[in-house]
Write a structure and sequence with these properties.
about 325 residues, mainly alpha, 12 helices, globular
Length: about 325
């Protein structure tokens, strides 16, 4: 097991190198640059900005591959993701000030999604082709078909028009006031979690139906075991192995959804930071945030692989 973990951690390095190269290069194909963004904000200036001088100061006068190698050198030799092009703060400092809201939103969304998806998926499989099964499948299809950004906008607009009520948008950090902070993040988390739960619920139902048709489950029924015992002890644990994989694949979608949800609900997280950086063409922040998200997704998938050992004792990593 230890050798497997070490190998997986070493494989993270080339994975993140490829990711960083793709992000670093692709963001530079967006029309305009940081100097254009500055000029658009300073229309009142009598004279245009000295583009050549600003490019030298910001290091944008060098070829793109040289900028990328300098950026990597800063990561490996100095432990820094660079500095913002529009300020004196380092990228990692900006990330650490924003990681809390994004982490809280992600954890709450994941928990809400699992609390909805797993019980409904299991119950829908146990009561196949009943009214409860059809209701669960209908809800899942609606969840897959409804864009979470549209639902978030509707949640803000219609309660305000009909009941003069709107979700709280003033950020409260968890350490300052846990209950009020949970209230601020509850509705965004429900919207994100519901979107994630739809696919997971359908997958859970499919896997449960497959497991329930296995011979060892039929044998358990034939021996006269109670339904709860058959489902909990024999069926659910084996059905969860592919479901855990599906949850791992859904996490990047959860990260992408948080970018939009944070902006709609004015949550000062990393998603909001990245959108602002994209608008400003602040390349170091965009690259740094994407690299941070990439590290998180890769490490979470490693954790999911390790969970397989608990769910299926037959699995052994060498």
């Amino acid at each position: 097991m230890r050798a497997y973990i070490i190998r997986r951690l070493l494989l993270i390095i080339p994975t993140l190198l490829i990711l960083s190269a793709l992000v670093f290069l692709s963001v530079r194909f967006i029309p305009g640059d940081v100097i254009d963004a500055l000029e658009s904000r300073m229309d009142y200036l009598a004279e245009p900005l000295d583009r050549a001088a600003l490019e030298r100061v910001l290091g944008l006068d060098k070829p793109v591959h040289v900028q990328y190698l300098l950026w990597l050198r800063g990561i490996f030799l100095q432990g820094t993701l660079g500095k913002s092009l529009l300020g004196k703060d380092t990228v990692e400092a900006k990330i650490w000030t924003r990681v809390g809201p994004t982490f809280q939103l992600g954890v709450m969304s994941l928990l809400i999604g699992l609390v909805i998806a797993l019980p409904v998926g299991v119950y829908s499989a146990i009561r196949q082709d009943t009214a409860a099964d059809y209701a669960g499948r209908t809800i899942a299809v609606l969840g897959l078909a409804t864009p979470n950004f549209w639902l978030a906008i509707m949640v803000i607009i219609y309660p305000a028009l009909w009941w003069n009520w709107a979700p709280p948008i003033l950020m409260v950090r968890f350490l300052d006031d846990p209950w009020e902070s949970l209230g601020v993040f509850l509705i965004p988390s429900i919207i994100l979690g519901t979107a994630m739960s739809a696919g997971t619920m359908r997958f859970t139902r499919t896997m449960m139906l497959e497991v329930l048709r296995q011979d060892y489950v039929r044998t358990a029924w034939a021996k006269g075991l109670r339904e709860r015992l058959v489902i909990v002890r024999h069926a659910i644990k084996n059905a969860m192995i592919p479901v855990v994989s599906a949850i791992g694949l859904a996490l990047p979608l959860l990260v992408g959804g948080s970018v939009i949800i944070e902006n709609i609900f004015n949550l000062p997280g990393m998603g909001q930071l990245m959108l602002v950086a994209l608008s400003d063409r602040d390349y170091p922040i965009v690259s740094g945030v994407n690299l941070f998200f990439g590290c998180g997704v890769v490490l979470i998938n490693l954790l999911i692989d390790l969970i397989y050992v608990y769910l299926d004792p037959r699995i052994r990593y060498q």
